[in-house]
Amino acid sequence: MHVVIVGAGSVGRSIARELLSHDHEVMIIDKQPAAMRVAQVADADWLLADACELSTLAEAKVDECDVIVAATGDDKVNLVVSLLAKTEFGVPRTVARVNNPKNEWMFDESWGVDVAVSTPRIMTSMVEEAVAVGDLVRIFTFHQSGADILELTLPPDSPLIGTRVGQVDWPQDTVLAAIVRGTQPIAPSIDDTLEVGDELLIVTGRDVDEAELLRVLINPSPDEGTGIVDETTGLPV
Q1: Taking every annotated instance into account, which residue ranges of this chain make up the domain RCK N-terminal (predicted)?
Q2: Which residues pair with 152 in a beta bridge?
Q3: pTM more than 0.90
Q4: Which residues of 83-114 are buried (b: 16+ CB within 10 A; e: fewer)?
């Protein structure tokens, strides 16, 4: 895979080193001479130029790349690079770094962004995931589909403790993608039993009511059942 990275800061260089270690071809573009630390990523191709200029992107042959990553510390630059790459050069995949969470709403297909990566939001999610038990934590949102990846750690009082995955009355457009038990990831089957402390990774459609999902998994009202389906009748219990 051929990847062009705009922004030679610590983020851009780290991404480049990781991609190179997986045998991908990488070019790094930056307009600041001080950022051209070629020796730190010697296996990449480097270009000192302004990536917001069409001539620079043409020189970098971005029309031949598979992915362009806009990883600068300036949201305006990342948006312009994504838009030019998508509309002028037809780059198949654009990934843009979001520095200010207030700007997240702009990082969508209208600006040519296929995947927006918000470092502050990811860090917030990781902090919440580390301390939250019994709360849904949004880990990632797919901008094209609007689907979410959610994480939930089952508390001791969850009605689902001791039940099998196949018995859970999951809301529509909700899929249990994985169970993490201790350090062991598990591909869930209908026969797996849920245990206290299980981390559930759940994929939901854009219209799923997270409050309803949390009710099913954690604390259903007494007159609304337990979120568990009787295997014989197929009815909630």
Answers
A1: 1-117
A2: 200
A3: no
A4: bbbbeebebeebbbbbbeeeebebbeeebbbb
Q: Any idea of the CA torsion for 97, 99, 100, 102, to the nearest 10 degrees?
A: 10
Residue 206 phi, psi (nearest 5): -65, -25
Q: Which residues contact 113 (CB under 8 A, 6 or more apart)?
A: 79, 82, 94, 95, 96, 107, 143
- Each residue's pLDDT tens digit in the chain (237 positions)? 999 999 999 889 999 998 999 899 999 999 999 999 999 999 999 999 999 999 999 999 999 999 999 999 999 999 999 999 999 999 999 999 999 888 989 998 899 999 888 766 655 555 544 445 556 777 777 766 778 888 888 888 888 888 898 888 877 888 889 998 888 889 989 899 999 888 888 888 878 777 777 776 665 544 444 455 455 545 444
Length of the chain: 237
Query: What are the structure tokens assigned to 186, written together?
Result: 């598990």
Of 101, 87, 233, whose CA–CA distance to 169 is shortest? Answer: 233
Element spanning 85, H or E: helix 75-89
Residue 11: both structure tokens together:
């983020």
Which residues are bridge partners to 2 per DSSP? 25
Count Cβ atoms within 10 A of the Cβ of residue 121 and give its class: 0-12 exposed, 13-18 middle, 19 or more buried: middle
Q: And the tokens for 231?
A: 């295997």
* CB-based contact 18:39 (threshold 8 Å): no
